[in-house]
Each structure stands twice: as C-alpha cells, then as structure tokens.
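Convert to structure. Protein one:
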Amino acid sequence: MAQVEADLQGRWPESRISPSLDRMRDVLHLLGDPQGTVPVVLIAGTNGKSSTARMADALLRTTGLRVGRYTSPHLESVTERISIDGKPLDDERFVEAYAELLPYLDVVDARHEHRLSFFEVMTVLAYAVFADTPVDVAVVEVGLGGTWDATNVADAQVAVVTPIALDHQEYLGDTVEEIAGEKAGIIKAGAFAVISQQSVEAAEVLLRRAAAVQATVAREGFEFGVLSRAAAFGGQQLDLKGLAGQYEGIFLPMFGAHQAHNAVVALAAVEAFLGGGADPLEDSLVRTAFAQTASPGRLEVVRRGPTVLLDAAHNPAGAQALARALLEDFRFDFIVGVIGIMADKDAVGIFEALEPVLSHVVVTRSSSPRAADVDELGAIAVSVFGTDRVTVTPSLPAAIDDAIALADEFGPSGSGVLVTGSVVTAGQARTLLGPNRGDDG
C-alpha cells in the first residue's frame, strides 16, 4: 500500500488539471471502457457533493441495489475514495486493483506528453473496480469543474449539480456564470438533470445547457424541495417533497440547513434514477437510509466536554453555511476555531464568514505542501478578528490542545472547538481525535 501511495503521489496532484480527457479515454479504451458498463449518477457543484453522494448511496442501497461510490478528496486514507456497498476498499483489494491497472497506465503514460494525474488514475481505478465487482449503479463525485473532469468520461444517467459558488477560479473562471458553464458539462443528451437551489446566474447557465441537450430537468424549489426542518437531538427532523412523493418526519443525523438541502437533492436524484421521478420510494426505506447516513468531517462531533467539531469547509460559501449551522443547531456560549487554510484559497472570505460565530481563533497549518504560511494566515486573521482574538500555533496537534484548553477555561458545558479551513485540516484532526469506523455507520 505504501508503494502504491508513493506512485500516486509522484503524479500530478489533483489540484492541477489540464482541459483534456484524451488520457482518460485512452486508458479506459484499453480497459474495455468500464465506465460504460455501469449506470452512473454524477454529482458536480462547489459545495455539498460528498454529503449528497453519501446520501444517494445510502438511499440506493436500501432499495437492494449494489452501489459503488467514488468521492474526493479523502479525509484519512486514499482507500476511502472508492467504496462498495458503503464500505471503502480494504488495502488488499486496493493494491490488487492497482496492480492490475499498472501495465495499462504505463502504456498510456508513454503515449502522452504528461503522465496520467493522481486524480485521473484514481478515477480509472474506481470505474474499473465498479465494472469488475460489478455494481448496479455508481454514485460518482466530480473532482473539479465538470466538462474536463476525469469523471466526465461517463455519460451519466442522472446529472446532479449542487450549489455553485466562486472557487478554483484559476481553472474554472472568475464568475459564477463561467464556473456554472464548466459544471454544466456533466449534463449529457437524454440525461435527467437534478439541480439544487442556485443563484439566478448559475441557474440560467444550467438550464440553457439542459435545454440544448434535451435533458429532463428537476429543480429544487420547483419540482422538489425541503418543506420544513427542525432541530432534533443528534441532527434534524425533515419533511421533504421529492419528485414523486412526500416524505415526512425524516430524521437526518447531520447538522445545518445545507445538509437538509443536500438530502432532498439526493432524494430527487435517486427517484430520477429509479423511475424518472414517476414512482415514490417506500417511506420506510427513506427513513432507514437517512437515519443511517453519515458524512465524516462535515460538522462531525468527535469529542464531548468540551464539544469538538470537525468541518471541511474550504471556501467562503462553505464557511457561510457552516456559520449558519453553528448558530441554528448548536448553543455554544464560547467557541474556539482551529483554522488551517490552503494557500490558494480565499482566507479573508473564510475568516469573515466565521467571525460572527467564533469567540477566538487558533491559526495553524496542516501537513499539506499547499497549506498557507501560518504567519501570513495569522496576519489575515488579526485583520478580521483583532489581535486579542487570535493565537498562532503552527503545529496542528498543539493548536487543537490550545483550543481545548481555552474552551476548558470558559467551562466545558457551554464551550466548543471547531476545526476547519480545509479537507486536509479536518482529516488530520480526525486522525488525532475522531472515530474511524471504516464505513458509513
């Protein structure tokens, strides 16, 4: 496994892309085009993709289907990215699948100017494993953008677009319209497009694409939506309107209005996949699926006394959703944020979104080479929070300890710690603090 990980890390990182699917099509053709042997639900968007994928996976499994799921990035282990029936591949299966793939990678690497990237290889591996297993349906999360993303070699039966905001502008464009145009590329001829609540600008782009390829469209707020939500112990209680039915009193063990919206998007996607939105799902199956769904690193409680939360928010839109959830679903009198952000992200926007809900900030960095310089990040935090509310602790483990100590000083019953800023920061904190169930709960 260490050898495989070293080879993967020696390739282009997934933060770097080129607008071409030539390498992907080349290697998949050598493999017999496995991406065409399994029906695909493909999920693009700026935020909410992983949670939506996990919920759709759970719903499909409760109907008796064998489901493959591909998500990215991972929190703790690269094997998390590929799961079969809710469980990530074990190391042995992962290594065996990679060994079978390696000769084909070598051939294609030699044919092209650039070798297949880390993300491209992982995507090929996922499609190959899903075809070999085989699964009845693959729920696949787009990595970056849509049109040129490696996952988009599959013609998805259902194309899902979660909320679109500014992120990865260096690759996708400087406006919401440009970014929406890239993500709209996953909507193919004859597909069923499930579109979450969007800004007017993004919605117009997505709907134009759907009309151009004659896709069937379902829009949150029109054909489906969240009817009501209320806080509940350990999560929230939802009434949902799907494409074909209404589902009331659904318990979702996740926090935040954004997760309620992710839930109804996942529900509509599954209804679309199973019957084109004509037939409702069995109510008991919907209840079971949502009650068992987990989304690690998304407002995940990993410790009590004081409460320690992990969240992978890594852009201003994600941080805004996180801040709203903290205000609506938690009752903290004092909360300390442990924040480590990547250098290419909008740190000012992230800090400004979290400033109203955080009492103090401990600025830190993850072990990622892309992590922002901790002193530069600290200076940005001071400009937003003020000197008295900022501590700089370069080591993430020490930063967590400092935050817990500050929360303990206030009193563990009314205080909390939030670790956020990037997926890597949340993942490394989870390794230090959190559960490692190895499946979806």
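Protein two, convert as well:
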Amino acid sequence: MAILVFDIETIPDIESGRRLYELHDLSDEDTANALFALRRAKTGHDFLPHHLQKIIAISVVMSHASQVKVWSLGEIQADEQELIQRFFSGIDKHTPTLVSWNGSGFDLPVLHYRALLHGISAPTYWEAGDTIQGFRWNNYLSRFHYRHIDLMDILAAYQNKAFAPLDEISTMLGFPGKMGMSGDKVWQEYQAGNIKGIRDYCETDVLNTYCVYLRFELMRGIISQNEYQHAIEQLRHHLAEQIDKPHLQEFLTRLNTGT
C-alpha cells in the first residue's frame, strides 16, 4: 500500500483578486495588500479565504514497497496548474492513502478550488463508490474514512477546540519541528524570488508530518515498535543520500539528535 503525505504552500491569488474586487490598476504587491486589508475588515485577520489561495509548492513523502522518498512536485518554474495536475495524476496512478496535517481544513479545499479553476480532472480522488465499489465505504472525501488521514483532525477527536499546530506536536515527539521559515513568511519570500526556499521549507514540514504519522500508526497498532523503528531508519537512510540538499541534511541531523 502506498502512503502519500502531502503539504502545500500558497500565496494570494492576485489575478482573481483583481477580477473580484476591481483592483486592475494596482501592482501585485498593492493588490495583495488590498486583499489583506479587505479580509481584516471582514474577519479581523488577514488570512485569505481558500479560493483566493494560489498554490506555489506541493511537497510529498511517498512510502511504498519498503521505500521512502521526499520531493516537491514539478520543476521550480512549474506553474500552479502543472503542480495540481501532478498531484491528482499521482493519486490516479497509485491510489495511495493520503496523509496530511490539517489537509481537510486547508490543503484539500484549496486544491479543490484551484483544480476547478484550471479544469483539472481527478476521477480517482472524487470517486465515492459509484464506479469503484470499495470507495463507497472508504474514500478520500469522507471526514471519517481512512483513505485520507488528516492527523490534526483525528488526533483532536474532530473537535476544533482541540486542534494543535504541527510544529508543537513534532517538537513534543522529538522530531525536528519548524525549520527555515513559517507559513506567514511565504508571500514575502515569494516576492523576493525565493521559490527554492519555500519548497525546501514545505519539504521539511511534510517530513515532520510523516514522522508524526508513523507514531500515529504505532499508537493504533497498525505497525509494531520494530516496524516503527525500521521506518524511521529507512527515512534516515534516504535523507543521508540527499547530500546536495542542505535542508534535508539539517533535518536528518536534528532527527538523529532528537532536537
């Protein structure tokens, strides 16, 4: 069975914002600032709604057939449509179990809206049992099915007031936790042209999610203590091979030392 852990990074959708709020004469930066201001006036914070989040990075950890690998989809210059197409094509090809941290609350709704915008087909993801019988009782869409495991949602017993940040849970469990930057800095880094730094940050976040997932599988008895340790060692071995990627080497060092 393939396991696909995923995480996305986003920036304001400048083009749609201009269209929705008639901001045609503003620069990208001024348009974003206007969107933030409008959002603050409406909600008291400047976190934009899901449909105005443009995806600039999708990072994944794939665990399959005793192998594990971390990477970001597409080349660094790939546009949003290509990233989303690659994500859903991977689901069509492998039918993996999806794993996320707050994927139900953020990543997947954003992917839905953006796939809708770009006209991207994702038949396996949207299958609910009409074509494939087994998906009736275990599909990607139901909150309580395990074909998509939103760790934040499940560990909080589906209670919003019990939600916890990935960084704190990862650190609490002895995993590296937050590295490089934070989500609220992504727009600033994007404006500075630091797409690679954003992708690197996304990869370390998805690695933390994978580590927490392994501990979750140990807790619910899906894997044994020996299997858990073996999976962590597999991850260490893969990271050790990525000698040209400093962010993965730093993650490995902190994973080895438990800091």
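The chain has a mean pLDDT of 94. Strands lie at 3-12, 53-64, 67-72, 97-100, 148-150.
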